[in-house]
Amino acid sequence: MSEIKVGLIGFGNIGAGVVRLLKDNAAVIRQKTGTGIVLKRIADLDITSDRGVTVDPGILTNDVNQIFNDPEISIVIELIGGYEPAKTFVLKAIAAGKHVVTANKALLALHGDEIYAAAAAKGVEVQYEAAVGGGIPVLSAIKGNLASNRFNAVFGIMNGTCNYILTRMTQEGADFSDVLQSAKELGYAEPDPTFDIEGTDTAHKLAVLASLCFGTRIDFNAIYTEGITGISGIDIRFAEQFGYRIKLLAIGKRTDDGQLEVRVHPTMIPQHNPLADVNGVFNAIRLTGDFVGPVMFYGRGAGQNPTASAIVGDLIEISRSITAGVQTRRAAPLGFLDNSITSLPLRPMDEIVTSFMLRFTALDQSGVLAGIAGVLGKNGISIESMVQTARHNGGQAVPIVIMTHEAREGAIRAALAEIDRFDFIAEPSRLIRIEDNLE
After folding, report:
1. Would you place residue 1 in the very low, low, confident or very high pLDDT band (cuts 50, 70, 90)?
2. Are 138 and 186 in contact (CB under 8 A)?
3. CATH architecture observed for domain 141-300
4. Is the pLDDT of residue 154 over 70?
């Protein structure tokens, strides 16, 4: 086959990167596939704005059906994002017998089962490397070279906006709101950064990644999700004092009783762990397989060029199948046979067991430490160490930080609720979870 024709839905920043990559590296792509990959049609509501790339005006259209109804188009790229109309467009492409490449983690996190089932019925591929980690080739590695492993854990720093904010707060002592504004000005954060800083974007990616690692259906709404808006400079300073750094971490773990832990929240990571040194807008994903052991993938998790690289990589994989005469999909989207996908139970957050850093803001008066320690002890929570700042005159509020041994989350929350009712507590108490074992 001399050329493989492609339709692109969504001609924004990432779409422009795909167009540029297909043009600039056309010779390299042909050397690696034996065929040319040609954009035959680009559909977008706006076909007049300058995207910084040269495109034949004749391939631009406002009518997305021109892509679905064109028998020459073998692969459809969906880059509009969100749930609708992206879901409708992807299902229409599949129904027309076309392979699909998407970077839409939100769509797959909520509607992946329906999309994968439709693709199986039509015998077409759904590829989505760019949905997790941008240009980091972690999904293809899980489905490919690492496929023989049973994965026990996956940890990820998967949102560049949050990592940029926490890095500057750590390295410069900067204030959260100031760094967030800087991230917007630099283009690292959206004008409305809610999905990023509240952890939703990371949870979307974790839903996709955990499904792939563990061969199970992950209910996105069941993922415990907590963002970074509650992290302050004092939390970061105390964490460093104890030998940790705070990252927004996606966590997926198998438990000994056959459950899964799937959660996203600010997490204290030991400073000697490689994940603690992932800074700025960079992402990293650390997997542990039963034979390969720990493996870490690192790189730019977003941006026009890295994301375009992953999308075109998926195009190349599908194109290789087409040129080889493969008439159906080579592998299921999750890497497991469809009939072997399970529904592993998720461990409730109250049952999670880990260590914690607890921060109390208490009036400087007698009986405070005894009161806090008494409630913690009553709830079965053991204190590992404690720091109290210098005493002040006049009963001013001061921070008290306690590091606990492993404890059940439900017990911690019950204890904090009781402690916060004391008259000497000036502000709601804070907890930050600790992950010492990242294997």
Report:
1. low
2. no
3. 2-Layer Sandwich (3.30)
4. yes
pLDDT tens string 345-364: 899 999 999 999 999 999 98
E strand map for 26-108: 36-43, 60-61, 73-78, 99-102
Length of the chain measured in residues: 439
Report the CATH architecture of 3-134+304-340: 3-Layer(aba) Sandwich (3.40)
Q: What is the pLDDT of residues 191-206, one digit of tens each?
A: 889 999 999 999 999 9
Which residue do the tokens 């904010």 mark?
165
Contact 156, 202 (CB under 8 A): yes
What average pLDDT does the structure give for the chain?
Answer: 92
The pLDDT tens digits for 18-40 are 999 999 999 999 999 888 999 99
Tokens 């160490």 -> residue: 385
Q: Crossing angle, helix 26-33 and helix 13-24, to 10 degrees?
A: 70
- 3-37 as b/e: b if 16+ CB within 10 A: ebbbbbbbbeebbbbbbbbbeeeeeebeeebebbb
Kindly list the catalytic residues: 205
Cβ-proximal residues to 401 (8 Å cutoff; 6+ apart), any chain: 238, 357, 358, 359, 360, 386, 387, 388
From-to residues of CATH 3.40.50.720 in the chain: 3-134+304-340
pLDDT reading at 328 higher than 70:
no
pTM: 0.92
Q: Judge: domain 350-434, CATH 3.30.70.260.
A: yes
Among 67, 97, 95, 69, residue whose Cα is nearest residue 79: 67
